[in-house]
Amino acid sequence: MNEIKIFSPGTVANVACGFDVMGFALDSPGDEMIVRRINERVIKIVKAEGFNLPLDANKNVAGVALLSMLNEVKDEVGFEIEIFKKIKPGSGIGSSAASSAGAVVAANKLLGDPFSKTDLARFAMEGERLASGTAHADNVAPAIFGGFTLVRSYQPLDIISIDTPDELFATVIHPQIEVKTSDAREILKRNVLLKDAIRQWGNVGGLVAGLMKSDYDLISRSLEDAIVEPIRSILIPAFQEVKLKSKEAGALGGGISGSGPSVFMLSRGQETGERVKMVMAEIYDKVGIEYDIHLSKVNKEGVKIIS
Length: 307
Ligand code: HSE
Known about the structure:
This protein is α+β, with helices and mostly antiparallel strands. It folds into two domains: 3-162, Ribosomal Protein S5, domain 2 (2-Layer Sandwich); 168-297, GHMP kinase, C-terminal domain (Alpha-Beta Plaits, 2-Layer Sandwich), CATH 3.30.70. Helices cover 37% and strands 26% of the residues. The protein contains ten helices and eleven strands. The protein has helices at 61-70, 95-110, 117-132, 140-145, 181-186, 194-213, 216-222, 229-232, 239-248, 270-287, and strands at residues 3-13, 22-38, 43-49, 78-84, 148-153, 158-162, 168-175, 253-256, 263-268, 291-297, 304-305. α1 links the parallel β3 (43-49) and β4. α1 packs across α3 (117-132) and α9 (239-248) packs antiparallel against α10. The mean pLDDT is 97. The structure holds L-homoserine.
């Protein structure tokens, strides 16, 4: 096998309380990529459709992720990549992670699976470093592992898969404004108050337990962010109204998707997810901001081989 086509999912990082440690994968939107094995120690981005992406491998997140993988491969081998981008960069739905995770999963298959999923996340994180200035793993981990993931530790990298309750649906609205992850990180305070930290780790534990027990009420109670959301939400139009009205429509809760501007809400069941979708859309129609909106099951598989 010398060529592989994959689907790489969008992801929601942070999941309210878990800044830089929690994330989950979506069924849609997602990118497609073709990765080809070549007999030359080089990474070539031969096509990038959908958005204006750099073709220089050193400036492209998928290229950088593959270069970092190639450092640990002894064979005389390299890769050509074609990217069909559907997730808009700067959307907060893991656009850069989809490219870097998709590239390393595909390349690993073409090499005969020598690397573990945690190794692949480590390579893909180099793409995140290029995109945002920080090698965070909370988008690449769910893209690679599927479902919900917890980054228990960065050094050493320790990624834990968390069970995904079957009836969980995510509604994600992407207002058409751009928030750069690097900017959204820059505005955060460097220190947190102990009382906020206590609330936050209580909620992270609650969210993990709620997911593992399929306890939807506990998930709902735990979807609270005392640290990051109060600062970042000012960048997102109508954020408080979206949250309030979505919960009134039956959502379990939600928050900013990654570093924004997308906002996600989790619901139990598709019908509630559809109601939340309507409510979110109505708010942005009223405010007069264009948006994309997606209702998706949580994707338990992660990057998928199409052919
Ligand atoms: N955890 C990262 C952040 C995710 O919130 O900055 C970026 O998608």
